[in-house]
Amino acid sequence: MSAPRTGAPRLSVIRRPRFGGAALPGRRGVVLADSATVSPAPRPVAARPAPPTSAWLPTAPCSPHSCVDSTASWAAVPRATARLVSVLVLVLVGVALTPLVGRLRARTRDRWIRRWCRSVVSAAGVRVRFTGAAAPTGGLLIVANHISWLDIPLLAAVRPARMLAKTEVRGWPVAGPLAARGGTLFIERDRLRALPGTVGRIADALRDGAAVVAFPEGSTWCGRAQGHFRRAVFQAALDADVPVQPVRIHYRLADGTASTAPAFVGSDSLLASVWRVVSADALVAEVQVLPVLAPGDHTDRRGLARAAQGGRHAQGDPHIMCA
């Protein structure tokens, strides 16, 4: 007989999968992105389940603790409170007037929506600089980098449009009902099977002459870092044969220094992000409307996404309009 083993029992190392890609629907069927890899857990304990990933559910490394500029100051509390009250009043007025505004003629309705959106941003204490030509009329896919909840009224000031948003937004207080009444297209980001249907609904809206706003990065970033444009939403523009309007958004201080105070990232709450914005001093939002990408310029969604992404870094000599 062999001698009994002594000492602490050996524990097996538990490994968990880390998924680097997802299945994406394409014209030739389903295409798999990066293959899955396996890496060991740092300690021999039960690993947490990996978060779900999909073409609609990318993640950004930005967090409010490591990326976001603090604006905390007791001296700013009275001013911030007044700004917050002003924003809430304007939002509630907008919700109340939505049925009435919806009955106006399209041109008049869009003009009032633009004014209201600029008023909300201004009430939050943010000055806006719009550059570039006006967005075209008719069916249009508007794509932009995503940093803050402020991006939404800023893009609506460029051209009122139907937003593409995650289903969780529907449950937000005040903002959820307002988004639903505004014709927002909601995405079930954790269900790949819903992706073709969502692309089809976006294409139908574009064919009907509507403008649709999408954030192809799929997640908010702090502004100093940024993600890459996912391709799926661009398929809707190809199917509907409509142009794509790239827009670039930056937030700066009055002296031109980049600011991450407006960022709404990671575990940040909407209220915390709003309070940071209204507490900040001399924030400036720069919204650059870049040259439109005409239908037919790019025949596949990969090239179209790449062109729209590259357009965010284009430099020009646009005419500056201040709100």
UniProtKB/TrEMBL annotation:
<comment type="pathway">
    <text>Lipid metabolism.</text>
</comment>
<keyword id="KW-0443">Lipid metabolism</keyword>
<dbReference type="GO" id="GO:0003841">
    <property type="term" value="F:1-acylglycerol-3-phosphate O-acyltransferase activity"/>
</dbReference>
<keyword id="KW-1133">Transmembrane helix</keyword>
<keyword id="KW-0444">Lipid biosynthesis</keyword>
<keyword id="KW-0808">Transferase</keyword>
<feature type="transmembrane region" description="Helical">
    <location>
        <begin position="84"/>
        <end position="104"/>
    </location>
</feature>
<dbReference type="GO" id="GO:0006654">
    <property type="term" value="P:phosphatidic acid biosynthetic process"/>
</dbReference>
<feature type="domain" description="Phospholipid/glycerol acyltransferase">
    <location>
        <begin position="140"/>
        <end position="252"/>
    </location>
</feature>
<dbReference type="InterPro" id="IPR002123">
    <property type="entry name" value="Plipid/glycerol_acylTrfase"/>
</dbReference>
<dbReference type="Pfam" id="PF01553">
    <property type="entry name" value="Acyltransferase"/>
</dbReference>
<keyword id="KW-0812">Transmembrane</keyword>
<protein>
    <submittedName>
        <fullName>Lysophospholipid acyltransferase family protein</fullName>
    </submittedName>
</protein>
<keyword id="KW-0012">Acyltransferase</keyword>
<keyword id="KW-0472">Membrane</keyword>
